[in-house]
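dude i think i finally got it to work??
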Amino acid sequence: MAKILYLGVESELIQFLESDGNSVFCTANPIDEDMVINNKFDFIVSYRYKFILPEQILRHFEDAAVNLHTSLLPFNRGYDPNFWSFVDGTPNGVSIHYMTAKLDKGNIIVQKKIVFDAKLHTFESSYEVLQENIKQLFKENWDSIKNKTCPKIPQESLWDGKGTYHRSTDKNELLPFLKNGWATNVAEFLEILKENKAI
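look at this
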């Protein structure tokens, strides 16, 4: 049985990990080194967690701290990866990677490319597809993650070393074009951006 620190919002993955015989502590709040030392956690699983963990915490989790990210890394590191994959025209997908002190830059464990028809999806519906795929990908690969037998693929070796990064505020000037918020059809939004020469 492993003692797992689950960082982020609650999801079905907590029940999945518990059903595997693990003890899971969940928090979406910032953590510090004393907290992880005192609780003697074996693993960190990060999913939709909003804080970057420093090296002083991660050094206690060699090959035992993983993050679930809804982009095909190294594309769309940082915030709003689904949004930017459409705006920038970069591949959509999901990735599970080892955590480092550099945001979304750790070695890849596994990833899956997902192709969307922009005419058939809103940003909201495509986001939901990504969420379901990342959770399923984690479940399928948990055994190799916990046994530390999974791959460690440097991001620089993928997609010719190309990659993109966005901050939370980068999308602000484009938000007015989302006529129905995240329920806006993706293809219609992209057409509006072209008409307004925003891309």
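The mean pLDDT is 96.
im so relieved honestly
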